[in-house]
């Protein structure tokens, strides 16, 4: 299956879940137009409290729709936008992408993957026990965060459900994703 955009979501206020839209506009250097997390500098409240001048490496949050499928199979009521993501994907292993991967969504929008979303207690406030469901351990015992990835917008464009996703890996050596 070729990777596609399953859903797009945004919210003008700082809310955990985002509202599904028929399209969103990604704006270079800022993020999702009209979304509370759009901006050249950090917008997530915890990061603003630490240093509001830091660059915003979390302009766009992407989650694979397959994670929603898995969570529903484990009894959690969850759908696109519920976990705060702007873009829900299908057919793309987001967590295996290296830092610096470029993702073309639709005809114009171009993202650069910056790192992992670090799950926080808000996930358990949304659905009790879901935090543990999005965390895992690899064979070496290292923590694996499965709540999606973050990206910045390199080129503006509209993105809609059903849009194709093209993947361009960075030149080796590839750097694994770490929380941003």
UniProtKB/TrEMBL annotation:
GO molecular function annotation: catalytic activity; molybdenum ion binding; pyridoxal phosphate binding
Annotated InterPro entries: MoCF_Sase_C, MOSC_domain, Pyrv_Knase-like_insert_dom_sf
Entry-linked SUPFAM superfamilies: PK beta-barrel domain-like
Domain MOSC, residue spans: 19-168
Protein name, as recorded: MOSC domain-containing protein
Organism: Microvirga thermotolerans
